[in-house]
Write a structure and sequence with these properties.
- By secondary structure, the protein is of the alpha+beta class.
- 28% of the residues lie in helices and 35% in strands.
- It is built from 3 helices and 7 strands; from the N terminus they run H-E-E-H-E-H-E-E-E-E.
- The strands form 2 sheets. The chain has a 5-stranded mixed beta sheet with strand order 1-2-3-7-6. It has a two-stranded antiparallel sheet with strand order 4-5.
- Helix 1 crosses helix 3.
- The protein is globular.
- The relative contact order is 0.21.
Length: 136
């Protein structure tokens, strides 16, 4: 059995926050799903991250070794479409083909799966989403 969902989320968030701080500044962060709603003021630019196990044959992908498959959803939220695109690019640079250390073991390279276009949501924020997968 792989590390916990919480451990996977913490590892992915740490990876993304390192990249976002390098690309922007410390005010631009990746957050777990419940963190933004608890902030006094919603940031103008941020990435929401969701990590969970997914269905699939991890053993087939990893040479017969029992392995869990994981999906990462990154949602880019900003006050402008340009800023959301910049968040997406910085996040893609950090995640694509990265090997993440979780619970003392390293994942397979993170693979891009799919994306949704950046559009204005009901609250007038510009949002888009990418999905990623890896085995651990």
């Amino acid at each position: 059995m792989s590390a916990t969902e919480e451990a996977h989320a913490a590892a992915v968030l740490a990876l993304l926050n390192t990249a976002l701080t390098a690309s922007f500044d410390a005010s631009v962060r990746a957050y777990d799903l419940d963190e933004v709603s608890r902030l006094t003021t919603k940031p103008k630019r941020y990435v929401e991250v969701e990590v969970y196990r997914r269905f699939g044959d991890g053993a087939r992908l990893c040479g017969g070794k029992p392995t869990d498959l994981w999906r990462v959803l990154t949602r880019y939220v900003s006050d402008t479409v340009t800023n959301s695109r910049a968040l997406r690019e910085a996040s893609r640079g950090a995640l694509e083909m990265a090997r993440v250390s979780v619970g003392g073991a390293t994942t397979t390279p993170v693979q891009f799966e799919t994306a949704s276009s950046i559009q204005q949501d009901n609250e007038h924020w510009w949002t888009g989403q990418d999905a990623w997968t890896y085995a651990h």
